Amino acid sequence: MEHVRWLAEPTLSTPVIVAAFTGWNDAGDAASTALRTLVETTGAAPLAEIDPEIFTDFATVRPHVRLDAERHRTIVWPTVGLWSVSLPGADVVLVLGPEPALRWRLFCEQIVGVAEHFGSPLALTLGALLADVPHTRPVQLIGTATDERLIERYDLERSRYEGPTGIVGVLQHAFTTAGIPAASLWAAVPGYASSLPSPRAAIALVERACSIMGTPAPTAALAAQVPEYDARLAALLADDDDLVTYVARLESMLDELADDLDDDGFDDDADAAAEPADLTDADPDELMLEVEQFLRDHGGGDAAQ
């Protein structure tokens, strides 16, 4: 942990590590917003910083100039920060910052070192991906893990993805290699709304993460942002008839997938029927491949990506 600068020495009892990063793993700013919400609404205190000098390409993620009340200039460097908080049901270490550009293995060693320092029994990473999903349906969450006990306890799926990955995937692997049980939670964000920060996806991530930790989910501030988000999406569709048609096609596709799940033997009683369709057992990338294949099979191969 030679690149961790400690800011405090709190007494924590086996805290859960929860991490999210801006950048490639953060569609609709959902993962970073979820983590920032946990920091800002729980009274989390600064715990440490990871020196950005050797991990960051400052030409890509640039520092900012700030002026204080006396007009004195300071440089604010893009730094991964750590906060700690004791919540009902769990102590937590929260990790948030830009996805590093360099030396990912060394960077992950710093985070894993913090987890080992506190004897963390669980690590959660948060991410968000762009997918062919409609904003008019509940946010789809995908939870994956490699630890069989986590998979069974929290109804997660073993990831089967092979291909390019971001820091979330690398950090997940680092936790697993170090023997720290880890799960990854992903929210699907509509691809056509990629430019809009998604409070709905952030809420879904906060609720699922807090459910796993056994602590109440602080979502009131995010819920207050939903009406504006919905209004902006309504305005986006009002100007584009093709997009309206596309969203209707996605709705039909998702409803058909939900029907297929019921036909395959999923619980179909009255209580289950009252719940929204949930595809949490899907891998993020396999979900997108399945959706794309559906669109091709149903004449939608030229739909917006």
**Largest β sheet strand count, sense and barrel closure:** 9 strands, mixed
Structural class: alpha/beta
CATH class: Alpha Beta
State the helicity in percent bands. Answer: 25-40%
User: Strand order, biggest sheet?
Assistant: 1-3-6-7-2-8-11-9-10
Stated plainly, the CATH topology is called: Rossmann fold
Q: What sort of overall outline do the alpha carbons produce when their principal axes are compared?
A: globular
For the terminal residues, how far apart are their CA atoms? 41 Å
Total domain count = 1
Q: Strand share of the residues?
A: 15-25%
The appropriate CATH architecture is 3-Layer(aba) Sandwich
In round numbers, the mean pLDDT is 85
Residue runs with pLDDT of under 50 for 5 or more positions = 265-284, 290-305
Radius of gyration: 20 Å
Question: What is the N-to-C succession of helices and strands?
Answer: EEHEEEEEHEEHEHEHHHHHH
Gist?
This protein is of the alpha/beta class. The chain has helices at 30-41, 104-118, 148-154, 167-177, 199-213, 220-223, 226-238, 241-263, 270-273, 284-297; strands spanning 4-6, 16-22, 45-50, 64-67, 73-76, 80-87, 90-98, 123-131, 141-145, 157-158, 182-190.
